[in-house]
From TrEMBL:
GO MF term set: phosphatase activity
Protein name from the UniProt record: Bis(5'-nucleosyl)-tetraphosphatase PrpE
Superkingdom of the organism of origin: Bacteria
Xref: InterPro entries: Ap4A_hydrolase, Calcineurin-like_PHP, Metallo-depent_PP-like, MPP_PrpE-like, Ser/Thr-sp_prot-phosphatase
Domain Calcineurin-like phosphoesterase residues, every copy: 1-196
Annotated organism of origin: Aquibacillus koreensis
A Pfam family that the UniProt record links to this protein: Metallophos
GO cellular component terms listed in the entry, alphabetical order: cytoplasm
Amino acid sequence: MKIDVIGDIHGCIEELHDLFHALGYQWEDNIPFHPDGRIPAFVGDLTDRGPNSIAVINLVYEMVVEHKRAIYVPGNHCNKLYRYFLGNNVKQQHGLETTVAEWKALDAKQQKVIQHHFMTLYEQADLYVVLPEVNAVVAHAGISADLIGKTNKKVKTFVLYGDITGETHPDGRPVRRDWAQSYQGEQWIVYGHTPVKKPRILNKTINIDTGCVFGNALTAFRLPEEETVSVPSKQQLVEEKFQTFD
């Protein structure tokens, strides 16, 4: 098995196409496939903030659900959109408003199709995926070694939001512990969620959310090669969105 784990897309469909091209994928029946049988794995946060979340939903649904040529784990933005589609009273902010606006611009029939596609994709997804063939775990915001194999509420919170303390920064962002600092596991943990300027490798963890929607890059981590491939973003750079570490 050969895997290409793809970082947070956030509606950046053009960059996703560019990344598939850079990774050597070809197109057949309007979906990408790799001549060497490589499998893409999406690390969540498909939608929100970017220019074309609906196109990303359609493509990932086709690849994962219809053709079973890809793997997907949900991110916190995916969870929020799912709760919106359930009819929950979700605040349309932090990017959800862009996806909802796109969706509402469709006719009623298309709206039903997109809602069904996304909810099916989300409901069929595991919280995180263990890939023993490449000695890796894919989880949106990461996962600590002691939680691998579990699926309780604590696990769900960790993989969607990171190792949050319950406190918030002045700008409203949750305070998160740097769990990767103390990770001592043997498996790669491949994650995103927190935008960084370049892939952050620490112990055997790698953050591949290189902030495409904030103007930096879209990144994939290839296994078993342990290589990263990035393509530049077409969005405007928003410098303050990137996390720096000591």
